[in-house]
Amino acid sequence: MNLEEVRTELEMCRSGQETITKIWALDCDIQNKIFVFLWRWWSARNKANAGEKMASSDEICKSVAFHLMDIAKLGNPSHEVPRTIILKWKPPPADCYKVNVDASFHPRTMTGGWGFVARDCSGNFLEAGAGNFLNVASALQAEALAILRSIERVADLGMTRIILETDAATLGQALRSEVYDRSPNCALFRQIRDVMCSHFFQCTVSVCPRACNSVADKLDAHGASVVSPGSCIFMCHIPDFVLDLVSGDMPRASE
After folding, report:
1. Left (φ > 0), alpha (ψ -120 to 50) or beta: where does 2 sit?
2. Nearest CA to 250 among 84, 99, 89?
3. Is the CATH code 3.30.450.40 the one for domain 97-249?
């Protein structure tokens, strides 16, 4: 184990305390090798005294080398670089369309904006809409009105199977259950569910992270700030201000 010189020095020590003191004065790597060796040697001796098979010197040295490797790993842990999870819009299945909706609310003026975008399974832009509200009571009401405006429009376009996606978790729960049917917006939630049932063969409500709703968010901002008060517009071609966002959401061949 290349410790003959150290062994000779330790052999000259007159007590256990002097032996330990001398070991502590050595380099850390040598200290570890000595301590692990003494431990494995003591363990082998105990087994021999108990009548078990005596380990050979070669076996003891291999055991020491193994444990020293473990100690080295503890001293130099491999720092794995955490994977960055990129959140992005996911296209719908081939047999339906996805309609992303977003809204904003300005409590000081009690106004808001809304926007939606409809795309197919290849991420192709089909239509978008944007508008604003002159009088809205809350952010939740603005989100619900945005949903209502959006599904009425896509129903007029003849879409019968859609995934309705919003980043408003409370609204998603209100539309998928009756838990908010006694809230101030209960009539609006029921109206939306009625339209969903009567105008579509399939209408699934999905809640997504805000990062996956960037196109609808941009359209919502456009509706709130650009469109004249109380009006809305529908766009059958990709507006320039969301062109990069729509392109960025397109599924890649490698994905």
Report:
1. left
2. 89
3. no
**DSSP assignment, residue 109?**
T
The per-residue pLDDT for range 7-66, each reduced to its tens digit, is 888 888 888 888 888 888 888 888 888 888 888 888 888 888 888 887 888 888 888 887
Q: Which of 102, 121, 97, 114 is nearest to 249 (CA)?
A: 121
pLDDT, tens only, 89-146 = 999 999 999 999 999 999 999 999 999 999 999 999 999 999 999 999 999 999 999 9
pTM score over 0.90: no
For the chain, the domains span 4-75, 97-249
C-alpha distance from residue 104 to each of 7, 114, 123, 184 (Å): 78, 6, 25, 18
